[in-house]
Amino acid sequence: MSDALIEVRDVSVTFGSGSRAVRAVRQVSLHIEKGEAVGIVGESGSGKSTLARVLAGLQRPNSGEVRFAGESIYQRGKAYRGENRRLVQMVFQDPYGSLNPRITALSAVSEAVRVHGVGSRKDAIAKSLELLGRMGISERDAGKKPRQLSGGQRQRVSVARALSAQPSVLLADEPTSAIDQSAQAQLLNLFRGLLDGGLSIALVSHDLGVIRYLTQRVYVMKDGEFVESGLTVEVFDNPQQEYTKQLIASIPGRELHKALS
Ligand SMILES: Nc1ncnc2c1ncn2[C@@H]1O[C@H](COP(=O)(O)OP(=O)(O)OP(=O)(O)O)[C@@H](O)[C@H]1O
Ligand SMILES: [Mg+2]
Fold first, then answer.
1. Ligand 1: does its nearest atom lie under 6 Å from the Cβ of 44?
2. Which CATH architecture has domain 6-260?
3. How many helices (H) and strands (E) does the chain have?
4. Confidence (pTM)
5. Tens-place pLDDT, residues 23-52
6. 49, 109, 123, 185: most buried, per Cβ within 10 A?
């Protein structure tokens, strides 16, 4: 094993059994170093979210190993015990499903801030408002519940909530799909700053402009397998597989890439 911060080795996930079995992830290996951002791209249904959930410890693989800081994340059957539970945070593809519908954005973030140990309630609220503000969520919107927010606002609240734990690894599944370009640029610049500070990121996105801007390496997924991987610039500029070529040709993001570079 390498000294990667987080890695999966020969991981497979099958849903269901018999003739109905879906082999969502097949014998996949991936590693992320400290301070590195890697991209996971591929067509819909190729297994990206399942793999992200495996890294988050939310989906136990049928076979293979998941390691964080050199050790299996499964200790006596449970994933990410103790401090490690805070250190690996996930932003879900559907933030509607992951945010508690009964509490406001501010409560959702300050709850997370407090769980992860910032002193008083007042301090937690101040810190949460600051974090939400950096995400472009005003104090007024922070007082809203998920259903009162737009899809893009919900996404940004989920990111704020995940970051409030001060994780070492952020697993972000389509974190920018519902937000406009200026908010995207803001979020990506925030991620950039966090990467410089040592955060590791696995980024799942259909937007190859976003992947190109943020990640050093990329894994291209098809039918549960990696068909190609390597340095993002090399894979994008000189794709070896027909599948990757088609993906690059069919996916938006050039405008954003232009705007950011
Ligand atoms: N809980 C589940 N039960 C059964 N099948 C599932 C489950 N979760 C995912 N799958 C199946 O596994 C495959 C991979 O799904 P996954 O959500 O990982 O794809 P994805 O690459 O994230 O797609 P998208 O780009 O549309 O988000 C799909 O065929 C999907 O239908
Ligand atoms: Mg998905």
1. yes
2. 3-Layer(aba) Sandwich (3.40)
3. 12, 12
4. 0.93
5. 999 999 999 999 999 999 999 999 999 999
6. 109
